[in-house]
Amino acid sequence: MYPLKFEPILKQTLWGGDKIISFKHLNSDLKGVGESWEISGVEENESVVANGPDKGLTLTDMVRRYREDLVGEANYARFGNKFPLLIKFIDARQDLSIQVHPSDELAKRRHNSMGKTEMWYVVDADKGAKLRSGFSEEITPKEYKERVLNSTITDVLQEYEIHPGDVFFLPAGRVHSIGAGAFIAEIQQTSDITYRIYDFNRKDSEGKTRELHTDLAREAINYEVLDDYRTKYEMMQNEPVELVACPYFTTSVYDMTEEIGCDYSELDSFVIFICVEGSCRIKDNENNELTLDAGETVLLPATTQDITIAPGAKGVKLLETYV
Fold first, then answer.
1. Does residue 118 contact residue 174 with C-beta atoms inside 8 Å?
2. Domains of the chain as residue ranges with CATH
3. How far is 162 from 316, CA to CA, in rounded Å?
4. Which of 102, 84, 113, 265 minimizes the C-alpha distance to 175?
5. Binding site for Zn(2+): which residues?
6. Triad 70, 298, 247: Cα angle to 5°
7. Residue 67 designated active-site
8. Which of 196, 218, 230, 281 is catalytic?
9. Measured between alpha carbons, how far is 72 from 77 in angstroms, rounded to an integer?
10. Where, by residue number, is the active site (predicted)?
């Protein structure tokens, strides 16, 4: 086993922008790319290995072949051949719809699927870019439906101006929306279930509005109100800073100017690194070595005991996540 890179899966969307292609240094003339799925085990959207002897295999092929050696014993027992995380870059030229995702229990009952808890790390943001997360005041399910119908649902959502490095944790049930000008790294459970609540009455090129899931969403929403939906943390150089720890993933950020070592000998999981700025070289305990540049993602198998990360001349900023 060795560190794995994957071919990105590019998604053209109604609201997509022009940042992903250049950020990832891809040779492509696709327009309106809203998402790059970096690591995905979603059915019919499975990532394909881009390097080494297993090049050309899908992520699902890899899990079936290597089982706990790839994902860890506990993860294989818990998820079987379904890879548990989905990693994306998202570039919003327009506001995304107001939406919510179901819990595991609800998603299992309705769709025989995992639910979707996720997190956002803001990689870049145009001046004045905003996003919405959570309610700003208490409302009832009845009032929620009325506000969707009369287009005032955004009046009761918390809105934040965003800047690079901002972090938002979005447990299943939290209403949210990415705003125009936001460029985000997203870490989430492997699920493609989204309930679209409100889409600003937008129409596509054929003059059609997109389907809303008002009633499905009503039962999925957590109506609690928090004082602040942002994740607060203090960045420190050359050591990991934990951002989110939940039953579905643990994510830390590294801001590095000098070489560090990471010991995974006691960790029963794969580890994913997402490079959001700069570049580095990663070398594991079996002398496998690769370069990771901004916009690239690498999956370290659970058999990895330790690695060293050597930042490039301008440093590197990485997100590390595992289950």
1. no
2. 4-231 (2.60.120.10), 239-322 (2.60.120.10)
3. 21
4. 102
5. 101, 118, 176
6. 60
7. no
8. 196
9. 9
10. 196
